[in-house]
Amino acid sequence: MIKNLCRALLGALSSTNSCHVGAGSMKVRTGGNAVVRINGKTYSGSSVEIVGGRVRVDGVDQDGVLSGPTVNVTVNGSPASVQTDSGDITVNGTAGTVSATSGDVKCGNVQGGVSTTSGDVLCRSIGGSVSTVSGDVSRSFL
User: Fold this and answer.
1) What is the pLDDT averaged over residues 32-51?
2) pTM tops 0.90
3) Span 35-44, pLDDT tens digits
4) Residue 117 pLDDT > 70, yes or no?
């Protein structure tokens, strides 16, 4: 039922929005310009996401199930967007937008905005807005 609700909502929203179901959900829109490392394993494709504890690349489920509620994501390249519910995000490159509900954001340059509800933001430069409810915002030199 939740997945059907998400599909219905996503059909009404712009293509940059994602639906997060449960802890550890994540979506990276790479545009083919990035490689994504999730908890130590590397994936590449135009879209890498976590749905129901499984990694999906370009709509195809990958082998194995992620364990634990925290997902650590490292993106090497220039993704259009990175979104997680739980876990730290590191972007080694230039991102379009980055958001995390619970986790730190570390990045080079971000063309758009960066947001986290509970976590620190450390980025070289941010072209849009930056927000965190519970965390610090600092300039870094990744």
Assistant:
1) 89
2) no
3) 999 888 899 9
4) yes
β-pair type (97-102, 114-118): parallel
Distance of CA 90 to the CA centre of its chain: 9
- CA atoms within a 13 Å half-sphere pointing along the CA-CB vector of 55: 22
* The CA-based dihedral angle spanning residues 129, 126, 44, 32, taken in that order and rounded to the nearest 10 degrees: 90
Structure tokens of 50?
A: 């976590």
Compute the distance between CA of residue 56 and CA of residue 51 in angstroms, rounded to an integer. 7
Query: Would you say 113 and 126 are in contact if contact means Cβ atoms under 8 Å apart?
Result: yes
Beta carbons of 123 and 106 less than 8 angstroms apart: yes
Reduced to 3 states, what is the DSSP secondary structure of residue 138? strand
- Cα dihedral 39/100/89/59 (nearest 10): 60
The set of residues, in sequence order, having a beta carbon less than 8 Å from that of 84 and lying 6+ positions away, is: 24, 25, 26, 71, 73, 99, 100, 101, 103
Q: Which residues is 74 bridged to in the sheet? A: 37, 90
Task: Tell me 1's DSSP state.
Answer: -
Of residues 95 and 4, which shows the higher confidence score? 95
